[in-house]
């Protein structure tokens, strides 16, 4: 469920969101995890 659906952001650092993905390489898989500030959309 979307727990922040009605949250109004007015400044940076009120809400961080994260995602993880994997990337295939010659040696197998590498994992990439990013945390993003939802207001400024900058990677933390």
From TrEMBL:
Residues in Integrase catalytic domain copies: 8-44
PROSITE patterns referenced in this protein's UniProt entry, alphabetically: INTEGRASE
Matching SUPFAM superfamilies: Ribonuclease H-like
Record-level Gene Ontology MF annotations: nucleic acid binding
GO BP field: DNA integration
Domain of life of the source: Bacteria
Protein's recorded name: Integrase catalytic domain-containing protein
């Amino acid at each position: 469920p979307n727990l922040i659906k009605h949250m109004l952001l007015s400044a940076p650092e009120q809400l961080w969101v994260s995602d993880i993905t994997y990337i295939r390489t010659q040696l197998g898989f590498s994992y990439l995890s990013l945390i993003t500030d939802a207001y400024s959309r900058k990677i933390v």
